[in-house]
Amino acid sequence: MYMQEIDAAPIRLDAVVLECRDVSALGDFYMRLLGWQRHYGNGETWLDIISPDGGVKIAFQNNPDYQSPVWPEAADKQQMTAHLDFAVRDKEHMRQAVTHALDCGAMLTQSQYGGDRWTTLIDPAGHPFCFVIW
Question: What is the CATH number of domain 75-134?
Answer without folding.
Answer: 3.10.180.10
